[in-house]
Amino acid sequence: xxxxxxxxxxxxxxxxxxxxxxxxxxxxxxxxxxxxxxxxxxxxxxxxxxxxxxxxxxxxxxxxxxxxxxxxxxxxxxxxxxxxxxxxxxxxxxxxxxxxxxxxxxxxxxxxxxxxxxxxxxxxxxxxxxxxxxxxxxxxxxxxxxxxxxxxxxxxxxxxxxxxxxxxxxxxxxxxxxxxxxxxxxxxxxxxxxxxxxxxxxxxxxxxxxxxxxxxxxxxxxxxxxxxxx
Length: 230
Prior knowledge:
With 230 residues, the protein is of the alpha/beta class. The strands form two sheets. Strands 3-2-1-4-5 form a five-stranded mixed beta sheet, with helices on both faces. It folds into two domains: 42-149, 2-Layer Sandwich (Nucleotidyltransferase, domain 5); 171-229, no CATH class. The two termini are 34 Å apart. The chain has helices at residues 14-28, 73-76, 80-94, 96-99, 124-129, 149-170, 174-182, 186-196, 223-229; strands spanning 42-48, 52-59, 62-70, 103-108, 137-142, 204-207, 210-213, 216-217.
């Protein structure tokens, strides 16, 4: 739905209709977010990729609010550190009313950011973004990437769609070859039938006719195809 708001980007199709129906369903379903308790510590978890950033505001491991943003082309070529720092700053600014004036924790899977306050400002990017955190009382803790699944998942759907687009751009029939490899794999066939039957799986997803595992397209048991991809 956000993509439709871009300049000259409003093209209503099957994907837009599906997103619209999912949005309506989410708005009439029971809420999954907790109500903030200002007597407890807030925790901000953020994550960044080459194409977007995601963040979640939590208390006692329960989400209060979500935030995600696609990166414009001018920011996609930034270093991993710079994108991770941007994710932190944008998330803190997003939830300023909750965080200003009280101690909170920022959890990151980028180890160098743990020592953010001890680093010297050496680049123009740092001089622009680090001052935005002044006035806040926070500490940064390191969290393994595999544990940071909430913030990470906020940009994975976009990443998965771009992955499929990239594959089809490299070779027009490569994605179709990957799909064909599923028919030769009985285990994947069983999995696909369960997912298309609306069953949930902790690691696999069926999105727009493509099978993903943790946000990446799944390749069937075809040695020649795997060798070609490598």
